[in-house]
Write a sequence for this structure.
């Protein structure tokens, strides 16, 4: 097939029960708020990896689902807001669109980061905002509402056939067949480039330091 799977070097110690992962965390106390919209868990893993590296650089991080952000949460209180969202059949979760449309002014007041997670990005020529059609369309939507992220990264996701229901399994297998991807439904393949994720965390940490926003 010519496709190379990634290997996650991060220790997956954080779980949904960890205090800093809970939607009940005091979001206003964190330097960086990382929001994720994930169906099968890869966007969560990417958000956790970013948080791991940002914490190592000295930044306080809180993680939460996009769907759990309360209307009373002041996004502008954070030095940075990171949205990590996966694509399903060509669309991001509706909650991501709703958040950006309703809270664009708050997002624009922070260092904004958008991470698009999709299987199309397993191909290097589809791994930029300019060449990834789904991401390009979303960024146009966000800009119309007044939000232009300081950083946008297109990251390859993961193929989790054993976790899919019958419909998803057949649909994704069909899409993979059309695009030259893995079609063995017994397999799980992680395409995420973790060095790419680490590089994004480093650039964000450097930007926050340059802004003079050290804790």
């Amino acid at each position: 097939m010519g496709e190379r799977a990634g290997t996650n070097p991060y220790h997956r110690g954080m779980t949904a029960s960890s205090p800093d992962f809970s939607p009940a965390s005091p979001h206003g106390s964190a330097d960086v708020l990382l929001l994720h919209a994930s169906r099968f868990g890869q966007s969560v893993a990417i958000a956790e990896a970013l948080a791991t590296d940002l914490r190592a650089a000295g930044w306080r991080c809180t993680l939460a689902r996009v769907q759990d952000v309360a209307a009373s949460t002041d996004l502008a209180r954070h030095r940075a807001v990171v949205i990590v969202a996966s694509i399903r059949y060509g669309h991001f979760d509706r909650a991501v669109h709703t958040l950006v449309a309703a809270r664009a002014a708050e997002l624009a007041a922070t260092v904004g980061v958008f991470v698009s997670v999709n299987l199309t990005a397993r191909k290097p020529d589809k791994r930029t905002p300019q060449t990834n059609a789904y991401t390009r369309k979303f960024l146009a939507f966000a800009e119309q509402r007044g939000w232009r992220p300081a950083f946008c990264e297109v990251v390859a996701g993961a193929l989790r056939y054993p976790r899919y229901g019958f419909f998803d399994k057949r649909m994704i297998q069909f899409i993979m067949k059309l695009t030259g991807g893995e079609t063995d439904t017994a397999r799980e393949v992680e395409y995420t480039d973790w060095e790419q994720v680490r590089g994004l965390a480093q650039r964000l940490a450097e930007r926050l330091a340059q802004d003079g926003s050290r804790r």
In short: DSSP finds five helices and eight strands in the chain.
